[in-house]
Design a protein that fits this description.
homotetramer, alpha/beta, Alpha-Beta Plaits, Rossmann fold, 7-stranded mixed beta sheet, 4-stranded antiparallel beta sheet, 37% helix, Formyltetrahydrofolate deformylase (chains A, B, C, D), EC 3.5.1.10 (chains A, B, C, D), hydrolase (chains A, B, C, D), PurU_ACT (chains A, B, C, D), formyltetrahydrofolate deformylase activity (chains A, B, C, D)
């Protein structure tokens, strides 16, 4: 299995060896699109996708994302980034170039409920997720067999409130060892410490099993049942130190009715959780998500 | 227009002169369906629709709704209700017969935003809502022309927090004068007093412009925008004395994205509000909604 | 894995050892509900769910499904079915009792695309599908490893138009050997012969990758792309000898746009195919689907 | 009412007196975005929205839409268009500038079913549709009162197959008299002649009451009922001389089930028809729709 996926990654890298992306945010003013698109043109890059957004026609913040093809891109990275400095300075830009062939390394954290993990693995082995799932960390052993059967390292780290500090030290060491770019909490039911979260800004994606901001916190399906809602939902968001208050990347819902028990809601919800998390991770991996004032701009 | 609608109602009454409904709730135990369906059979009623629900297989509450056809039903009403007493007693039932030809009288309360009112009027004049819209009450005059052009009495009663008592006295008098069965708050932006609400249990339907329990209270679209949700919704519910906490009848959502301003959310939300309120009112008019422990059972 | 699932099945059988279902269709007339519910009551069965449908108030066909609990049901099967004959005759009924503890045996046919198979296996191992997946048959070997890793027999039978007869003989022998109740075509891309289909009326469920009746036949996503539709869909249906014309059990759609290539449609479609097929199979396993005049009544 | 809407239009024109749009399609090649965005920058235009699409990374067609703000735009129209010629020639562009303050004139054709017309009027009087609804043409008189009550000219032109030629002559005369930009067939149940259609390429929007390409032609709801579909839909498309085969602008669906009669499907379908047509018209009015090889690119 691992071999097959490595084949996927290699063929993806081959197909995308000239594919780059440029993300920019800056104070809105005339001339930004012209300046950046000129720059790319002069560097021999052909823009294949572009999206822009402005928070406010006047005095707001401007965001733009370009996806481009450029011959021998990997040899030009340093030059591109160096030469872009002049434009970046002129418009006071936050910016980054990313290169599709530099595949992001992902760590998945999971607990006993495996449906979100399985969905991610399934999308991954289908070739739809371009990432290297470098390891899976869990406080239970339920996922061990399936993860290892796919050739992915599995790390069992029992966790509890009392030993949170030690647990996180081990986790942080692993993240460093594996050079991780993205952490996905695929129903990992432990709270992370502020230090852990702060160290990974907009790089931890969680799935919450309600349409936030409804049912923040524990046991959302039980509370949804009790409230008698006619829709249940799921929300994927970047983790911040305000519980379930981080920037929302994606949400979806499913219809339920009076016949559905709290247990039924959980089962129905699994499908939404799986798809909502998978979409958010996919968009993140493709550098389509920008965070601004606790809201996300998703260029999809 | 009024003439055309009166034509609708008359033809509905004619088509439904033998159509009755029986709603029952009681402690769950064997034999209920058999007893009630036998009773209806012996009275010459043919069951055309039946739905049941049990909160819990053992020791729970059982709900059943029958819709039936019975020759000369209007002459048999008293007899039916009298003879049903024996069964009702045996099973400790809460129960009611309703008769489709006894069309419910509805009062619509509205403020300055007319989209929900217009949807209700539109469904009504299409013949899809079987009710007599007996009057419209508003604290503004915006709806006057359209309401009166349809031959419906319009009552303008300016309202504010300070004069709430006097306002409600006038409203209650009108509800009594017109013999109203159902009150629909079609974006009527005033809070009703506990006395007013208590006097109409499960007979006031409100539309709230969020997917409750998210964004309870004022300005939900502004708050939805600020929170950066990817879905907005609307909720129709019976009004109780806990603000926006009454039993939910129906909810729906629409997808939004980062380009939508708070004003866009309001516009997009209008469509959801209209359809969600219309569905809830329709189900109530057809006696499809039962309230149990602040949740609704909707037999649709 | 197999052990875990056998545990699921055993605990399901234990929990449902008193659970039966009765499905009836007959010419509509008064007294049916009364007669059947009385019968069940007298036999000591408590009705926990009932649904009915009539194709036409007058002179139509009436359908009813009861789900009931009855002490020591497995000892009473023969008696129930014998004693029901009198009622069945009186109302000219088609009828069957089924027993939840008699778990249906399912064969899954699959080709090279595994997403539908994987979804079924996933729902099954989660305990949501109450069936014994007795074997998987495929004309390719792609599914072999995953299927056998779950302890399910995998039969590789290469297929082509030329040898259809021999292939089907082998398949039919396996279906008989394993005593199969339900055949699921989980993207099995071969046409079945009329003899094969006729031998399994309403017992073969297929997933077609379009919202039928649009795009009947081959390559629906390519044709959907060419037509420029804004929605793509999937349809699960019972197989008949009219290609893609059998009774529809379930359909769903997903939104697409001009940016999506035919390949993108295929990827997006996989999610719909998986969920639509899984729902249809689940409803069939719970005896919720009745076929009437090439349409389905789904009591869900 | 007319006065109120004229107020809307005037305030829209005022708010948008500097708002222009540029739509371009041309063979794909590097440098297009740079050239056009430079041009706009040099002319003093600030890009507030841009969207692009390429049918194929290599050798395909490239589409781009800019929305921009430019001081004193109405004085610069001729200059802009003149100076753009050089770029247009260099890249072999099809292109057009449009000016938001030049409000399009719309004619609505309707028959006896008014729900789509009413939705358009409702969106219009809410200020959400920026168009001048210059006249309504109908082969029935049902819409007369409501249309005239809003101050819109209503033209009653009885129609039938036999007199199609004369009818269309009258209609064409009216379209010319009123200087119409867009024709909306809001459930106008007459076939237009090839001459009529050819004279208005991509300027006639129709609503078809099925999810095309399912149920092309007459009586789609009856056929949907008979086929037993679980979803019904509606499709808005530009009219071409192939019946119901024109480029699709928007589609949507609603879930139905076995209890819904053909008449119920019609009622449920009305809501979808209304919203699907309204969205398509809105996007057309905002110059968001480009037709390419019988498919639409919708930059929304």
């Amino acid at each position: 299995m691992k071999t097959r996926i490595e084949g996927h990654l290699r063929s993806f890298q081959e197909n995308n060896r000239n594919r780059g992306r440029l993300l920019v945010s800056c104070p809105d003013q005339p001339g930004i699109v012209a300046a950046v698109s000129n720059f790319l043109y002069e560097k021999g890059a052909n823009i294949v996708e572009s999206s822009q957004h402005s928070t406010n026609p006047e005095g707001g913040t401007f965001f733009i994302r370009f996806e481009f093809e450029c011959e021998n891109l990997n040899e030009k990275e340093a030059l591109l980034e160096h030469d872009f400095l002049a434009i970046a300075e002129r418009f006071s830009m936050d910016w980054k170039f990313t290169y599709a062939y530099k595949v992001k390394k992902t760590a998945i954290f999971v607990s006993k409920e495996l449906h979100c993990l399985l969905e991610l693995l399934w999308e991954w082995q289908s070739g739809d997720f371009t990432t290297d799932i470098a390891l899976v960390i869990s406080n239970h052993e339920d996922a061990k067999d399936i993860v290892e059967s796919m050739g992915i390292p599995f790390h069992y780290i029992p966790a509890s409130k009392e030993i949170r500090k030690e647990v996180e030290e081990k986790q942080l060491q692993l993240l460093e060892d594996y050079d991780i770019d993205l952490i996905v909490l695929a129903r990992y039911m432990q709270i992370l410490t502020p230090d852990f979260v702060t160290a990974h800004p907009n790089r931890i994606i969680n799935i919450h099993h309600s349409f936030l901001p409804a049912f923040i916190g524990a046991r959302p399906y039980e509370r949804a049942y009790k409230r008698g809602v006619k829709l249940i939902g799921a929300t994927s968001h970047y983790v911040t130190n305000d519980l379930d208050e981080g920037p929302i990347i994606e949400q979806d819902i499913e219809r339920v009715n009076h016949r559905d028990s709290a247990d039924d809601l959980k089962k129905i919800g699994r499908l939404i959780e799986r798809t909502v998390l998978a979409r958010a991770v996919k968009w993140h991996l493709e550098d389509r998500v920008i965070v601004h004032e606790n809201r996300t701009i998703v260029f999809n």
